[in-house]
Design goal:
By secondary structure, this protein is mainly alpha-helical. It is built from three helices and no strands.
Amino acid sequence: FKRHLNDDDVTGSVKSEKRTVLEDDSDEEEDFFLREPSGPRFGPRNDEIQHVQNQVIERGERLDELQDKSESLSDSATVFSNRSEQLRRQMWWSAYKITAVLALVAAILLLVAIILIVVKYRT
């Protein structure tokens, strides 16, 4: 006589055996391994892990934004430096032109004065 076991028989047998072991022997150390994991001894819960993962993702996004802002600031500083150098050159040329015009006017006035003095003493 052979008996064929199906899944329900095996599952029922395992459940009843587990129940028997848990009821007959109340050793906490064995219960720890036979029962489903629960409580704080197994670390943070799933929602806490999800919260930490979300915080890490948000931190990464903030770091990316900071990196973008830093690159933008660096580009702006380079543009500012280039434009300030151009403006410095323009101002130097303006000051040079003003100095040259004033020197030319002074030279012309001096030349006119010399010519008038020479003409006055010649006659």
